[in-house]
Design goal:
Elements: E1 32-38, E2 56-61, H1 73-86, H2 91-94, E3 95-101, E4 104-109, H3 114-123, E5 131-139, E6 148-156, E7 161-169, E8 175-177, H4 186-197, E9 200-202, E10 230-231, E11 238-239
């Protein structure tokens, strides 16, 4: 989208053009290492048939950013922190960290404050993030004490801005407040995230499975969920799961 002055804007970071110097780069050694992956698919019993059995790479989460964040990111951060203070909340207790990575900004929110933060972002005239396009679950088994993450994408139609909220919960207590009362369109998104990741959204009006049968055991999109084989009709054979096939590397 162009503003008439040959300046490219995309709603995520409109003050930067899409030149070669602004293309996303490797994260490298920056951020927080949560695990080291060996092979392509995590198979550790010789069943990696991809040919990448010798691959070793570090899995890292981007670290917190420092001000200035750049562009309108600082304006949004200032308005959010000011609105929190007006409600008697200490921003440092509410916002665990602010991450700017690949020209996108993410506010990591302590889960007990998720509901008031969403209310502020929706209703404050200087923010006006009227639309939440859903919640996505993420499972990091190596991120001890915060294995389950819920990521919300918020869009400001008024200001043409896009931000993310991220909330984490431990596997042993997978509870996060529901945002259906603030963003009703999250109804089925939260049900899907519960179905596949087991995150319990407290306050949801009808938190039931949406894709899997009601009596299904486990949560299929968690990384520790077992890989299943595919039954076929030919002579009763069965294709083994990827981590149980013979390795050729």
């Amino acid at each position: 989208m162009s503003d008439g002055h040959d300046k490219v804007t995309n709603g995520a970071n409109p003050e930067k053009d899409l030149s070669a110097s602004n293309l996303p780069g490797r994260r490298g050694d920056q951020g927080e290492e949560i695990r080291v992956q060996r092979g392509m698919f995590g198979a550790n019993n010789g069943g990696d048939t991809s040919g990448y059995g010798g691959l070793v790479r570090s899995i890292r989460l981007p670290g917190p950013a420092t001000r200035p964040y750049g562009g309108w990111f600082d304006e949004v951060a200032d308005e959010l922190e000011g609105a929190l203070e007006e409600q008697g909340l200490v921003p440092e207790n509410v916002i665990d960290r602010t991450v700017v990575d690949r020209d996108e900004i993410t506010f990591h929110i302590e889960r007990e404050y998720l509901l008031p933060v969403a209310q502020i972002l929706r209703d404050d005239p200087a923010l006006r993030f009227e639309l939440c396009t859903g919640v996505s679950g993420v499972h990091y088994p190596g991120d001890k004490g915060r294995e389950l993450h819920a990521v919300y994408h918020l869009r400001s139609i008024t200001h043409n801005r896009l931000i993310r909220l991220e909330v984490s919960a431990p596997d042993r207590e997978p509870h996060i407040p529901s945002l259906v009362s603030v963003y009703p369109t999250n109804d089925w998104h939260e049900r899907e995230t519960y179905d596949f990741f087991g995150i319990v959204f407290d306050g949801h009006p009808a938190l039931t499975r949406i894709m899997m049968p009601d009596d299904w055991q486990g949560f299929p999109q968690r990384k520790d969920y077992p890989l299943g084989g595919i039954p076929v009709e030919y002579k009763g054979a069965q294709i083994p799961a990827p981590d149980q096939r013979r390795s050729y590397s």
